[in-house]
Amino acid sequence: MKATSQGSSQKDARHEILHLEAFARQHDVRPVRCRRAAAIGLFAAALLITATPITPTARVAHAQNAGAEAHAIPVKLRESITDLPRASQPHPASKLAGRYFVDFRSRTAASYGHAFIWYGRLNEHGKVGQIEVAGLHPASDSVIPYILGHIMPVPSETGKSYGDLDEQYLTANYRVYLSEADAKQVFAHIKHKQASTPLWMATVYNCTAFLADIAAYMGLRTPASATWMYPEDFINNLRELNGGRQDITLAANH
Fold first, then answer.
1. Residue 107 host element (H or E)
2. CB-based contacts of 139, cutoff 8 Å, min separation 6
3. I want to staple 208 with a disulfide (CB 3.0 to 4.6 A). Which of 45, 54, 234, 243 is the partner?
4. Quick one: 142 exposed, middle or buried, by C-beta within 10 A (0-12, 13-18, 19+)?
């Protein structure tokens, strides 16, 4: 029944078009043929559209096709401009790739801050990959050893502490680079300092004094009052004393 009704509607539409053309010939209606043809064409198109029922399935298909076309252009543009495979966009070679480093750092803390170091080797893109952390601080996360450490020595820890890996807490840093041979010696010295520093005392031997000893071993000039300096001031002063130079070579006597 639907097919018969659709065919009948289309036949009626064609009949109306023929009727219009016959009327135009009979009355010699000639004001600008293109306008007459356009009017007849629009009227015919309207009749055909009206005569052709759009089923729910047709509406869904039309919407899906429209959606697919809408997504096709931006996707192609993105692929042609920015979303090329990674293989076709190689990382530029970095002159720092694979270099050994020691990074003197300071960060915020609940008190006056903390000084520590990152050390290791940069990856092939010149970025920090896996690192080791060393720094002197009271053992445990309790505030009690820290308070007692201002009047007497307390047990210490020399590895990473809370916040040492979080860049948002960083207040200052001074990074220096070494050859592989020198790095091995410096890294061994750092581990020796970690193993042989069992106590922490705020006014005698603290985080800044610990870093000053490592810096001095590397041949860097260090502040005379390192023990009593705020961590951020110590790092900035260390960098200034050494003119900000980053390439370090150990003395021959190491």
1. strand 100-107
2. 145, 154, 155, 156, 157, 200
3. 234
4. exposed
More confident residue, 140 or 83: 140
Express each pLDDT in 22-64 by its tens digit.
544 444 444 333 334 444 444 444 443 444 444 433 333 333 3
User: Could you tell me the pTM of the whole model?
Assistant: 0.64
Joined tokens for residue 82: 């920015």
pLDDT digits (tens, 9 = 90+) for 71-115: 332 322 222 223 334 444 455 568 888 999 999 999 998 888 999
Give the C-alpha separation, 105 to 103, whole Å.
Answer: 6
The token pair at 219 is: 């041949």
Nearest to 228 by CA among 237, 239, 218: 237
Tokens at 156, concatenated: 């210490």
**Contact yes or no for 189/253 (Cβ under 8 A):** no
For the chain, helix, strand, coil in percent to 5 are 50, 15, 35
Q: What is the DSSP string of 134-202?
A: E--EESSS-HHHHHHTTTS-EEEE-S--TTTT-GGGEEEEEEEEE-HHHHHHHHHHHHHHHHT--EEBT
CA–CA gap between residue 202 and residue 112 (Å, rounded) = 11
